[in-house]
Automatic annotation (TrEMBL):
GO terms for cellular component: plasma membrane. PROSITE patterns: ZP_2 (PS51034). The chain crosses the membrane at residues 361-384. One of its GO terms (molecular function) is structural constituent of cuticle. The lineage of its organism: Eukaryota, Metazoa, Ecdysozoa, Nematoda, Enoplea. It comes from the Eukaryota. It holds the Pfam family CUT_N. Keywords: Cell membrane, Cuticle, Membrane, Signal, Transmembrane, Transmembrane helix. This is ZP domain-containing protein. SMART domains: ZP (SM00241). Residues 1-17 form the signal peptide. It is found in: Cell membrane. The keyword Transcription regulation does not apply. Residues 31-289 form the ZP domain.
């Protein structure tokens, strides 16, 4: 029976050893170029997998293949691969970001793979243009004296204005469940009612107005549909209706969940235009959405202001025929999704579906293998004892 025990031990060793012996060493290196970003990784062993932008594995320009050495990298052009752009006002500039996935297996995604949200920030700079002006005068001394006084007064006035800076508001975009006081959601079903909420917070009171405009939804793979135009007017009332502005720095609207065909995720993106109040009132381009025949020059005069890009969290939409897409299941999944860092297992209420994280799955496989090996060894020991007793008799 000894050869049998040895064979079982080898099988157990194979079960525990089915993990790719490779990993990323140190921190990734990011180089932000003029129109591209370069990402470079160092690996423990020769790299045999792929590096690609999430959602664009099948796009050759958005993927690099095995290098067979201890480095892996990818060059991402900003004009390709759906690189996300987000403008900011404090500091003034633009973020360009992409989710980069590193897979160590040449064909499959495994538990040792990693994903990184790579960002490059480009700060906007103000260019000061000056010119020298020379004026000839017969009364040179008197003119220079007047000029000096005028310059001093202008400099003093400019200094006073510069010191009166007002902090720009900070804005966010949320998709909520159960109304304006609900929780942000990450999972929903087609037809479920959700609540879109845009809000800005500012230390300055009664100064700014916000207008939500240029809203779009995309599937993460390049397909994008416009929901609100540059004036903040809805393009399809069945997808998103006219926005309601309860305060100067808040907007909201109810909506029914929809999805792209055979695409599980939705990504919402909007722009928020911040303008100063006029005579204590907020005047928005979206106030006249019902009057589509207005002159363009009337609208363009209201478009001046700072624009801020805002994004909602990724919304995973389940089809109506999914077996676990009941409302109670989604609420349970939603509550667990708020603790992503602590969630290892999700058990749906139908008792048939179980979702495990990669770490939990590995632990579960190890426990099952250990129990199986223990039970088999116990069976072998029992059989040997019975065999000895039977031989004595």
């Amino acid at each position: 029976m000894l050869p049998t025990v040895t064979f079982l031990s080898l099988m157990a060793g194979m079960a525990f050893g089915m993990v790719i012996d490779n990993e990323i060493v140190g921190d990734p290196e990011v180089d932000c170029g003029v129109d591209v970003m370069h990402v470079k990784f160092k690996t423990k062993n020769p790299f045999e997998g792929h590096v690609y932008v999430k959602g664009h594995y099948d796009t050759p320009s958005c993927r690099s293949n095995a290098s067979n050495n201890h480095t892996a990298g990818l060059t991402i052009a900003y004009s390709q691969c759906d690189v996300r752009r987000q403008r900011t006002t404090s500091p003034s500039g633009v973020y360009l970001s992409a989710i980069v996935v590193v897979t160590f297996h040449p064909m499959f995604v495994t538990m040792v793979d990693r994903a990184y949200n790579v960002k490059c920030f480009y700060m906007a700079t103000d260019k000061v243009v000056s010119s020298n002006l020379e004026v000839r005068s017969d009364h040179l001394g008197i003119y220079h004296y007047s000029k000096a006084v005028t310059s001093f007064l202008l400099s003093t006035l400019a200094t006073e204005l510069i010191t009166q800076n007002v902090q720009m508001p900070e804005c966010k975009y949320e998709v909520l469940s159960d109304g304006p006081t609900g929780q942000p959601i990450k999972y929903a079903t087609v037809g479920q009612q959700v609540y879109h909420k845009w809000s800005c917070s500012s230390e300055a009171v009664d100064v700014y107005c916000m207008t939500v405009h240029t809203c779009s939804v995309e599937d993460g793979q390049g397909r994008r549909v416009l929901l609100l135009d540059e004036n903040g007017c809805p393009q399809d009332k069945y997808l998103m209706a006219n926005l309601n502005y309860p305060t100067d720095l808040a907007a909201q609207v109810d909506s029914m969940v929809f999805k792209f065909a055979d695409k599980p995720s939705l990504f919402f993106q909007c722009q928020i235009r911040l303008t100063l109040k006029t005579d204590g009132q907020c005047k928005r381009t979206s106030d006249e959405c019902h009057s589509l025949k207005r002159l363009k020059r009337e609208v363009s005069s209201k478009k001046k202001g700072e624009n801020i890009d805002v994004f909602s969290d990724t919304l995973v939409v389940l089809d109506v025929d999914d077996g676990y897409a009941s409302l109670s299941d989604l609420k349970r999944l939603q509550s667990l999704a708020r603790h992503d860092g602590k969630r290892d297992m999700v058990i749906f209420e139908d008792g048939q579906s179980v979702c495990l994280s990669s770490v939990s799955f590995g632990i579960l496989v190890a426990i099952i293998g250990l129990l199986l090996l223990t039970s088999l060894m116990a069976s072998v020991i029992v059989c040997l004892r019975f065999g000895k007793r039977y031989a004595k008799h």
